[in-house]
Amino acid sequence: MFQIMQFIRVHLSCCLHCGSFRIENGLLCRSCSEALDYYAAQPRVRNNGVKLWSLYEWPPGQSDMLSRLILNLKGQGNDIAWNYYARNLVKKRWGSDFADVIRPIRVVPAPARNELNRDHAAQWAKCLAREMSAELTPCLKRTSQKHQRELDRGERGLVTLELIENSTGLLEGYSKYLWIFADDVLTTGSTAQAAYEALGRPPHFEIWTLARRGSLAEHP
Ligand SMILES: [Zn+2]
User: Fold this and answer.
1) What range does the domain containing 191 cover?
2) 178 has which bridge partners?
3) Per-residue confidence (pLDDT) for residue 155, from 0 to 100
């Protein structure tokens, strides 16, 4: 039943940008999908040496299509579209060399901000892990509110993460893994930094996101 619903959804929906019924993949028609390539992101190395792989750069106020895509992906029943974008990022990162990757991979989703929101980082991480037959490792949580209250005002704005109970064993032999921190949209990178710290600054650590949200200062 679910597959029938998915089939109907894919084949009877229209491109969310131009309304064309000739929808290809990822909620867009081919020409809109190609237009989105204009926003393709280059890999970046952050100040701490960590590599960031994003599919798209998302300059504030500059791409209606990308804003609409991300908003729509966050709706219900978009599993096929999430898979499509996850597959594209895996291809972008590894190209044809994926078979040569000998290091085991662990994909760690950004923990949800609160339990009411649908958890897109978890979905993104699940698709990435499935695409690479990697281990999905949801081992992080946000530091508890009680903890937060103990911090002074300056510190309270910082994101802090910790390992969930019973997951400290995961860090045994942690340096042999490639840890991929997966978040749907990366803004300041403070959550990714907190994940890097919580995992003990592993030597092989990358951030993988659907879109990197630039700041106004960067894109005036
Ligand atoms: Zn279109």
Assistant:
1) 41-213
2) 105
3) 56
**Between residues 58 and 1, the one the model is more confident about:** 58
Q: What's the burial of 84, exposed, middle or buried (CB within 10 Å: 0-12/13-18/19+)?
A: middle
Tell whether 24 is covered by a domain: no
Q: How many domains does the chain have?
A: 1
What is the Cβ-side half-sphere exposure of residue 141, based on CA atoms within 13 angstroms? 12
Ligand 1 mean position to 55 CA, how many Å?
Answer: 19
CATH number for 111: 3.40.50
Residue 33 lies in a domain: no
Q: Give distance in angstroms: CA of 37 to centre of ligand 1.
A: 13
pLDDT for 176: 94
Q: What is the mean pLDDT of residues 45-61?
A: 92
Domain assignment present for residue 66? The answer is: yes
pLDDT at 31: 93
